[in-house]
Design brief:
This protein is 73% helix and 0% strand. By secondary structure, it is an all-alpha fold.
Amino acid sequence: MAQVALPVTHDTDAHALEHDHHVPSAGVSNTKLAMWVFLSSDCLFFGAFITTYLLYRNRNVAGPTPRSLYNIPFTSVTSFILLMSSLTMVLALAAIQRGDHRRFRVWVLATAAFGMLFIGGQVFE
């Protein structure tokens, strides 16, 4: 009688998938629960804003006006600087992913300069 050795095959991927599926005790996936918690917190946050507006809309509240508190042109410039620092960081990332070290250094230095300008503006403000 001839004996033939048959290879033992295991479907390790299917076995691993069986263990990856975890049923939480609440019966809802963690990602779905997190999204509902986030949406609920947003509802509470904006509900507080709307309630505050409704409470104060017909009252004569004395105090400084927004124009006297905030320097809108200066704030606009610092916001633009912050956005440009984000752009230069994206350009630096693209340069290093291409392997262009010279442009990477240029964009990172530009990002640092914009960052220092923004922080200086915040200190000044």
